[in-house]
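> call design_seq(struct)
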């Protein structure tokens, strides 16, 4: 005998769709499968939303980093300028301190020259000091060389040239004083 059920199912009454009837033994496993599938969809949606948020924040950080790189370049340029200015300041201080020192050396040179000799020019570099001058006689030049050898700052005195003045007014000379090492 065949039985026919004319009663409307729950899904037909509420959704208007007749769902296929599953065997009672399959209902629990299919329900668990549906719940697991729904859980996977929810977890995937949450992870996708987190990934999108992290990508947005990462892009924002990349833009900030790019702006910071420009600022970092400016800071490094300023640091280079600052180091250059410090070196320049140290060099200026060295030159300022060398003024009185050089003036003392020039005064010591003048003290060692005899009465008949005088200086007309002075050229200083790190290795030597070049002097040019005039003297009343050749003996004054010899006395100047002897007096300059006693300077403690210089190791030796070299006579570079001696010429008699064509007008007969003495001699001109050139000396080099080597720095003591």
């Amino acid at each position: 005998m065949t039985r026919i059920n004319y009663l409307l199912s729950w899904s037909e009454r509420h959704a208007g769709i007749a769902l296929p009837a599953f065997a009672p033994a399959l209902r629990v496993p299919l329900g668990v499968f549906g719940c697991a599938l729904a859980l996977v969809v929810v977890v995937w949606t949450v992870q996708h939303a987190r990934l999108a948020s992290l990508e947005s924040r990462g892009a924002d950080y990349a833009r900030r980093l790019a702006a910071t790189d420009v600022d970092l370049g400016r800071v490094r340029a300023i640091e280079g300028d600052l180091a250059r200015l410090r070196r320049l300041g140290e060099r200026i201080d060295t030159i300022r301190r060398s003024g009185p020192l050089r003036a003392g050396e020039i005064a010591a040179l003048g003290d060692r020259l005899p009465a008949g000799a005088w200086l007309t020019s002075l050229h200083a570099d790190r290795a030597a000091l070049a002097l040019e001058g005039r003297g009343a006689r050749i003996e004054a030049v010899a006395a100047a060389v002897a007096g300059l050898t006693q300077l403690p700052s210089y190791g030796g005195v070299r006579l570079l040239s001696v010429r008699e003045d064509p007008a007969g007014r003495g001699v001109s000379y050139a000396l080099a004083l080597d720095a003591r090492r």
